Amino acid sequence: PISQSPALSTELNSVGVYYSTSTGNTETVCGYICEEIGAEMVDIGDAEDSEIASHDTLIVGAPTWHTGADEQRSGTSWDDWLYDTLPNVELEGKKVAIFGVGDQASYADNFCDAAGELYDLFSAKGCTIIGKTSTDGYDHEESKAVVDDQFVGLMCDEDNQDDLSEDRAKAWVEQLKGEGM
Average pLDDT, stretch 76-82? Predict the structure, then answer.
């Protein structure tokens, strides 16, 4: 049997939570999410393809480091995984929820751009993206994580709005449950 240890298992749904981090902010936000769903986080650089493919729903999160880049925007293990590994993992039809961490004051023109890259590539792979959120309450200029006037998932700013991250994560997890996670 496939080990379900790093995930939340319900009768019908297995959730895997994958992230990567540069300064620890993405890991902090990932911790808030995992606390709400009772799952363990796995750094995408340490993840097994078969384990990832075994889940019904994936929650994936990345920071934005290479601002303005067209690809490999996170500056983390995601950069290689998205282009070298994702094309070879069977994920068609799976639900994917995305979270991003950025700095909307210092990088107002590229807020959470790496989350947009996750959205583009998981969507192109045939995944169903769940958990889109409003841009209300954020103070940024541009973001590649905005599609149809909504964020592609949960966006957090541990530099300027760290006091909001935990409540945002709790509300988002409730939203995901309502969207079939």
Answer: 94
In a domain, 134, yes or no: yes
Q: How far apart are CA 99 and CA 149, in angstroms?
A: 16
Can you give the CATH number for the domain in which 149 is found? 3.40.50.360
Two structure tokens written together for 128 = 């169903």
CA 6-88-48 angle, 5° bins: 20
Nearest to 180 by CA among 75, 97, 113: 97
DSSP secondary structure of 104-146:
TTTTGGGTTHHHHHHHHHHHHTTPEEE--B--TT---S--TTE
Residue 4: inside a domain? no
SS3 46: helix
Say what the pTM is: 0.91
pLDDT for the residue 175: 97
What is the tens place of the pLDDT at every residue in 106-145? 999 999 999 999 999 999 999 999 999 999 999 999 999 9
Angstrom distance (rounded) from CA 97 to CA 173? 10
Q: What is residue 50's predicted lDDT score, i.e. its pLDDT? A: 94
Q: Which domain holds residue 70?
A: 15-179
Report the DSSP pairing between strands 150-151 and 146-147.
antiparallel
CA distances 1 to 4, 15, 71, Å, are 9, 17, 36
Judge whether 68 lies within some domain: yes
Residue 7 forms part of a structural domain: no
